Amino acid sequence: DKRAQEEYTKMLDKQEADRLAEIKAREKRTQELMNKMADTVIKRQDEHKQEMEDKMRQHQLKKEMREQMEEENRMKRQKDNQVMMREFLAQQMEEKKRQEAYEKEMNRKQAMMWEKDAEDYKNEERETSAKIRELNKRHAQYLLQQA
Predict the structure, then answer these.
(1) How far is the CA of 1 from the CAs of 28, 76, 97, in angstroms?
(2) pTM of the full predicted structure?
(3) Rounded Cα gap, residues 11 and 17, in angstroms
(4) H-helix or E-strand containing 80?
């Protein structure tokens, strides 16, 4: 009977040990599962963080590229405006030169016309004076003939 009781006690101890081993194994599996889940959560968080950082980098890169393109376009417009302004000023200067040349030519022609008019006037005055002298001579001769 004592032996049966010892075997019974051994069996109970073994059952208790098995039960404790099963609880420990269950706790270990639970802990491993929780660690695995925590690792997965951390990994997902890290992946999400990395994705967000990549998106931010891409956004920043696109923004910088857009700003660079805008700056290049602004510089090109400014350069084009400068070229247009230079061309416009060159055209104005050329037009001014043409206008000055035209006015100079017109002044020259006007001076020539005044010279011709003055010469024509002098010639006409000479002719008129000559006619008057001739007329005075004839008149003087006529008066002499009558005297």
Answers:
(1) 39, 109, 140
(2) 0.44
(3) 10
(4) helix 2-146
